[in-house]
Structure formats: C-alpha cells, structure tokens
Specification:
This protein is of the alpha/beta class and 137 residues long. The chain is built from five helices and five strands, in the order E-H-H-E-H-E-H-E-E-H. The site of ligand CA2 has 16 residues, from loops.
Length: 137
C-alpha cells in the first residue's frame, strides 16, 4: 500500500515556531514514528510552500497511490486549484488538520478540500495524520 503525506505552506516550521498551537515535534521526527508504526505501508512525504507544486504532486501520484493524506494548511481556505486537483484524481484523499479549525477564526471554517475528500480528520494534533493513515488500512 502506497500513501503520500502532503503538507502545505509553513508546515516545514512545525516544532520550531508556535509550539502552543502546533506542538514541539518536527514533522521529520514524527514521520520517522509513522514509518516505524506502519511498516507495512510505503509512506512518502512531500511538503511545499507553493500552490502549483502541491497541485502537481496530487496529479503525479493521484492515479497510482492508494491514498493521499493532505494538510493543505492555509491553502485549505483559499485554493480552488487544490480542491479541483483533489476531485480530479482517482486516489482517495483524506484531509487532515493538526488544530481544530472550527474552534479558530471564521476564515478557517471554510475548506475548498473537504467536498472532494474521502473524509476529514482535524483537531487531534499530529495524531490526525496517524488516524488518516489508519483510515486507509
Ligand atoms: O491545523 C492545521 O493543520 C492547519 O492546516 C495549519 C495551517 C493553518 O493555516 C490551517 O488553518 C490549519 C497553518 C500551518 C502553519 O504551520 C506552522 C507551524 C509552525 C509555526 C508556524 C506555522
């Protein structure tokens, strides 16, 4: 089983800035934990701060992988292009968020991803990614 974890803008700063909101673990460290927990899964990780790169990655894996775990970060609330890419591919996409976006500012209550996603997991910290992987098994 091949699963891509795809992170959007600023998530490269995890563990380095705003630990009160996003925790103090870097995604590189957390990814190692996921790899050892899900040994039977071929996990790949990609992060980009650039909208077009995220769209291209969804297209690149979206006809061959078994699942995409997508945290589009701030693009969640703005990107028609990423939302369209999610709808255009065959691979099911699970939308994840570290924080509970519905407890935060109103602009974070809107998602351009959710309507094309298989499901949405949010508010469980980094464990949201773990739960999303489990949903594919
Ligand atoms: O809760 C989430 O996972 C979000 O997708 C994170 C995004 C935010 O815009 C969404 O509304 C909810 C922000 C990611 C920024 O990550 C940072 C990590 C450390 C320091 C600063 C930003």
């Amino acid at each position: 089983m091949k699963i891509l974890i795809l992170n959007g803008p600023n998530l490269n700063l995890l563990g380095k800035r705003e630990p009160e909101v996003y925790g103090s673990t870097t995604f590189a460290d957390y990814f190692k934990e996921l790899e050892s927990k899900f040994e039977a899964v071929e996990l790949t990780y990609f992060q980009s701060n650039i909208e077009g790169e995220i769209i291209s990655k969804i297209q690149e894996v979206g006809f061959s992988y078994d699942g995409i775990v997508l945290n589009a970060a701030s693009y969640t609330h703005t990107s028609v292009g990423i939302g369209d890419a999610v709808k255009a591919v065959e691979t099911p996409v699970v939308e994840v968020h570290i924080s509970n976006t519905h407890k935060r500012e109103e602009f974070r209550h809107v998602s351009y991803i959710s309507s094309g996603a298989k499901g949405v997991i949010l508010g469980f910290g980094l464990q949201s990614y773990d739960l999303a992987i489990q949903s594919f098994l």
